[in-house]
Write a structure and sequence with these properties.
InterPro entries: cNMP-bd_dom (IPR000595), cNMP-bd_dom_sf (IPR018490), Env_Response_Regulators (IPR050397), HTH_CRP (IPR012318), RmlC-like_jellyroll (IPR014710), Tscrpt_reg_HTH_Crp-type_CS (IPR018335), WH-like_DNA-bd_sf (IPR036388), WH_DNA-bd_sf (IPR036390). Keywords: DNA-binding, Transcription, Transcription regulation. Pfam families: cNMP_binding (PF00027), HTH_Crp_2 (PF13545). The protein is of the alpha+beta class. It folds into 2 domains: about 130 residues, Jelly Rolls, CATH 2.60.120; about 70 residues, Arc Repressor Mutant, subunit A (Orthogonal Bundle). It contains 9 helices and 11 strands. The strands form 3 sheets. It has a 4-stranded antiparallel β-sheet with strand order 1-8-3-6. The protein has a 4-stranded antiparallel β-sheet with strand order 2-7-4-5. Helix 7 packs across helix 8. The protein is globular, with a radius of gyration of 18 Å.
Length: about 220
């Protein structure tokens, strides 16, 4: 896949003309990061946006007591840090590379120069920032109102909606999922087992197949 093909595959740049894509490609910088690298920390100035070309990036917040809440683990084709494009505010969370990765990096100032000249790019950015803000809101809501089974069921259903299929590629370890829903790795494994035994899901390696959405929603208290 060429750089232009990769850019076309990204939600932020879909629908752009060849001329617009060429301008975007000119300000992109490909960077290689080793596992464990911190891309940015919560509160750092929002200076860059990252797109995962290869590998994975974990986005998380750290509470005052040092406990981490994983917000999401993003794989190829996803952006990290996009919300700072709205107002250049500090990063609201931290991001760490969880395996050796290749990322495309854009300076926020460079993208902001192009944004007013492309209605398509501006519309895409507006839509994606809204999605990321809703994701953060939904995660907070899940932690407040659902038990562990309900939180994991909701996460699987949300991922199925995002991927447009009832066959979900998790792209996360059980430990990372545990960090997202506020529980332990052992509990995630046990709850997935409960979902399998009740016919809600099937597990095929790193993929989860939602076999009965109605039953899965029942774990969330929905009828």
């Amino acid at each position: 896949m060429t750089d232009l093909d990769f850019l076309r595959s990204l939600a932020l740049f879909q629908g752009l003309s060849e001329e617009e894509l060429a301008r975007v490609a000119a300000i992109a910088r490909e960077r290689h990061y080793r596992k464990g690298t911190i891309l940015f920390s919560e509160g750092d100035p929002g200076e860059a946006i990252y797109f995962v070309k290869k590998g994975r990036v974990r986005v998380f917040r750290t509470a005052a007591n040092g406990q981490e809440q994983v917000l999401r683990v993003w794989g190829p084709g996803h952006e990290v840090g996009l919300v700072v494009l709205a107002d250049k505010a500090p990063y609201p969370a931290s991001a760490q590379v969880t395996e050796d990765s290749v990322l495309l990096v854009f300076r926020v100032d460079d993208l902001l120069q192009i944004l007013p000249e492309s209605r398509t790019l501006a519309a895409n950015a507006f839509c994606l920032v809204g999605q990321r803000l809703r994701l953060a809101r939904d995660l907070a809501h899940d932690l407040a109102v659902h038990n562990t089974h309900g939180r994991l069921a909701n996460l699987l259903l949300r991922m199925a909606e995002e991927q447009g299929s009832n066959v979900i590629t998790l792209g996360m370890t059980h430990q990372e999922i545990a960090g997202m829903i506020g529980t332990s790795r052992e509990t995630v494994t046990r709850v997935l087992g409960d979902f399998r035994r009740t016919g809600c899901i099937a597990v095929r390696g790193e993929q989860v197949v939602i076999q009965d959405e109605r039953k899965l929603r029942e774990w969330m208290g929905e009828n």
